[in-house]
Design brief:
The protein has helices spanning 9-12, 27-53, 55-61, 66-73, 75-94, 96-116, 120-149, 157-180, 185-203, 213-217, 229-258, 269-292, 294-314, 318-344, 351-379, 382-389, 391-402. With 407 residues, the protein is an all-alpha fold. Helix 11 runs antiparallel to helix 17, helix 12 (269-292) packs across helix 14 (318-344) and helix 13 packs antiparallel against helix 17. It is globular, with a radius of gyration of 21 Å. 51% of the residues are buried.
Length: 407
């Protein structure tokens, strides 16, 4: 039984604007549904990017050391991990529409909490709640993404995750603007909360009120009692992709500084180009999947990821390494959207629970990857650690080629 009872949402949340069958809906309305779903993805990414853009200021305000900040930052993924065992069931039982709307609103509210922190434990609690409700929001919004994809004949899942990545840029740009106006993190977070609230207000009517047949019949499904092996392997594939992505987030700047010896501001060149190709690659992902199929795109993506890592190791110079990081960004851009869409359409497991399973396994890769790089680098060197992580891309290609779910 879930910790919270969300049944009251059916009474207080307005009904979807269009009650007729989606099959009879006009294309213009379906496009509006797609836009609403994209904006919910954007809202999630915007919240996270807004918080991340003010970490240095909060660190200074609370007079935190690097070690203290690193410890406190674990509160966010800890909150996500605590929510994972039951978030899928909650979404399946009370509907992804309800949880997506409430979840994004609560996620935005919790974004404000770090700005209110005046002590270490305040920040820890705020980040824990930010991660906790972020997990519910993530599962519900991705479930909506799967449902919306089912309304279209062409692949569109990649564009949703592209919206999340695009929000990262917008969040960073807003952060620069807030710094230019010398606004405090709290003031910045309130502005961002207002923007996300407007996204919800103008788009909630177009969020799909629907349950898959699996959810209607198997709301009480328990993955732990009856695990689906296909989902486990999909999770492992996503684990390799997310580990590679997490490593680039945390270590690309360090690699350019210590290995490439990039001068001055060019230290951020690797990270910036990686983010650009990852974001743009997610919008191109739908085109590639529609033309070549999910299996070929994933196998090629794995090879591109590995090639990028090994190119960075073998050619540790500014231009070749920049190109290598761009390749890694393009490679990882396809993994999460494709895997989430495939997992969400699993015939044996409710969509939300399937996504929870895959995201739980893949999230471990996002957490474990960066520290693993540090440990390997400590024993050998940063170049060798990148070479070892490069194997993950090959794992993706091999596993995808063996899974029967990819035709």
């Amino acid at each position: 039984m879930p910790i919270f009872d969300y049944s009251f949402l059916n009474k207080i949340l307005p009904k979807a604007k269009i009650k007729k069958s989606f099959r009879n809906a006009k294309q213009s309305y379906l496009n509006r549904v797609r836009l609403a779903t994209s904006l919910f993805f954007f809202g999630m990414g915007f919240c996270f990017a807004t918080w991340a853009s003010r970490i240095p200021d909060i660190k200074s305000t609370l007079h935190l050391s690097e070690a203290a900040l690193g410890t406190l930052l674990f509160a966010l993924p800890f909150g996500q991990l605590i929510a994972m065992p039951f978030s899928g069931k909650v979404v399946a039982q009370y509907g992804s529409r309800n949880i997506a709307i409430l979840g994004l609103f609560l996620y935005a509210i919790c974004m404000i909490l770090p700005g209110l922190a005046t002590a270490d434990w305040h920040l820890a609690i705020g980040l824990f709640l930010f991660g906790f409700f972020g997990n519910f929001c993530n599962i519900a919004v991705n479930t909506q993404g799967v449902y919306t994809q089912q309304l279209f004949t062409k692949p569109i899942m990649g564009s949703f995750h592209g919206s999340w990545s695009l929000a990262g840029f917008c969040g960073a740009l807003l952060g620069l603007l807030m710094l230019a106006f010398k606004l405090s993190p709290l003031q910045h977070f309130v502005v961002a909360f207002t923007i996300v609230s407007l996204i919800i207000v103008f788009n909630y009517k177009y969020i799909i009120k629907s349950k898959s047949k699996q959810e209607e019949a198997k709301t009480k499904y328990s993955f732990f009692k009856n695990p689906d092996k296909t989902l486990l392997w999909l999770g492992v594939v996503c684990f390799c992709g997310m580990a590679s992505e997490g490593i680039m987030f945390d270590w690309s700047g360090v690699y350019f500084k210590e290995i490439i010896k990039a001068p001055g501001a060019l230290v951020v060149l690797g990270y910036t180009t990686f983010m650009i190709t990852m974001a743009s690659g997610r919008f191109f992902s739908d085109i590639l999947v529609g033309k070549y199929g999910a299996k070929r795109v994933l196998m090629a993506s794995g090879i591109v990821i590995s090639f990028g890592f090994y190119m960075a190791v073998l050619l540790p110079f500014l231009i070749p390494c920049t190109i290598a990081f761009m390749l890694i960004g393009f490679g990882v851009s396809n993994v999460v959207p494709i895997i989430f869409n495939v997992a969400g359409n699993n015939e044996k497991v409710p969509t939300s629970i399937a996504l929870t399973t895959v995201s739980s396994i893949s999230f471990l890769g996002f957490l474990i990857g960066p520290p693993l790089i540090g440990y390997i680098a400590e024993l050998t060197s940063l170049k060798y650690s990148f070479a070892i992580i490069g194997i993950f891309g090959l794992f993706i290609s091999i596993l995808v080629s063996k899974l029967s779910i990819f035709k």
